[in-house]
């Protein structure tokens, strides 16, 4: 049995002690007992810019198309993730882990489609052009271990990138995401 050092707990699918911003972009999972995959993503809005709060707006369906030309192309898209880890390591949760967030899109893992049905999605604020921050790896590792404590079907071989479940369509978490560092931190923070 893994012991959780970090004080964060999960209750009804929600982390305690982290910022909560409710996204309307979710629905029920076919089976909560089926939660068995973790998908890592990156996002930045506008692309390559950090910290403006636009990801939070986007996941709430509140992105203002007048703010930036790029937003005009995406503001009507209804997506979300369970959690976002900002450049400063701040964790925000948008959707209960017990519900289905809309992050993976058309996807397939080991022959099984519709990954959103059984996956938890975590977004790192980042891009394919800039390295992630150290504190993001720390928070991601802590968060992963907490999630795995409550959802033990997410074994290490079932932690993947969006690129792995939507090959040819998605590249995140991209060339800068250091999988070895992440998996080493997972072992340290257990
Ligand atoms: Zn993604």
From TrEMBL:
EC nos: 3.5.1.28
GO molecular function annotation: metal ion binding; N-acetylmuramoyl-L-alanine amidase activity
Segments forming domain N-acetylmuramoyl-L-alanine amidase: 23-174
Main location: cytoplasm
Keywords, sorted A to Z: Cell wall biogenesis/degradation, Cytoplasm, Hydrolase, Metal-binding, Zinc
Reactions performed catalytically: Hydrolyzes the link between N-acetylmuramoyl residues and L-amino acid residues in certain cell-wall glycopeptides
One of the protein's GO biological processes: peptidoglycan catabolic process
Cofactor(s) listed: Zn(2+)
Subcellular location(s) of the protein: Cytoplasm
The keyword Metal-binding is annotated on this UniProt entry: yes
InterPro entries: Amidase/PGRP_sf (IPR036505), Amidase_domain (IPR002502), NAMLAA_amidase_2 (IPR051206)
Annotated Gene Ontology cellular component terms: cytoplasm
Domain of life from the UniProt record: Bacteria
Enzyme class: hydrolase
Family assignment from sequence similarity: Belongs to the N-acetylmuramoyl-L-alanine amidase 2 family.
Record protein name field: 1,6-anhydro-N-acetylmuramyl-L-alanine amidase AmpD
Biological source species: Mannheimia succiniciproducens (strain KCTC 0769BP / MBEL55E)
